[in-house]
Amino acid sequence: MTFFTFIKIKCDIFHKNMNERFKLAIKNSDLSTKEVAESVGLKANTLRKALLRNSINEGYLILIEQNCGISKNWLKNGIKPIFVESKENQIKKILEQNTLEALDNFDKEKIIAYILLKESEFLKIPAFQSLIDKMKVSNKISDVVNRK
């Protein structure tokens, strides 16, 4: 990388003002300025003016990050990533991973016994019902192939 390329990258990322960074985030999301403003209790025009002056309150930046997923670090300092994953999604991923690890440690027969006890509840879950349907189709195909 040449010195001039480095300077251009620095100018593109770090020297944009807050308003330009916000516009870039909006352009790369399915949000509008009005939606972001309303999610933090502001009017769109008030948010625009604060962004133009680079004077948006830290509390609003935190709310924008929490409610809309636009990184406060991006808006304030131009440091990527532009978007952050919501706390809800982070927690969900951790729980899913821990649940899978825990299930791997259980006796498979106990898991099957539990599913059979709670069959009516599991059948209400579309993904589980889809799995059952696929297994039935697979068994029918096996029967045809094996001429049973």
Automatic annotation (TrEMBL):
Domain of life: Bacteria
The protein's name: Uncharacterized protein
Species in which this protein is naturally found: Kordia algicida OT-1
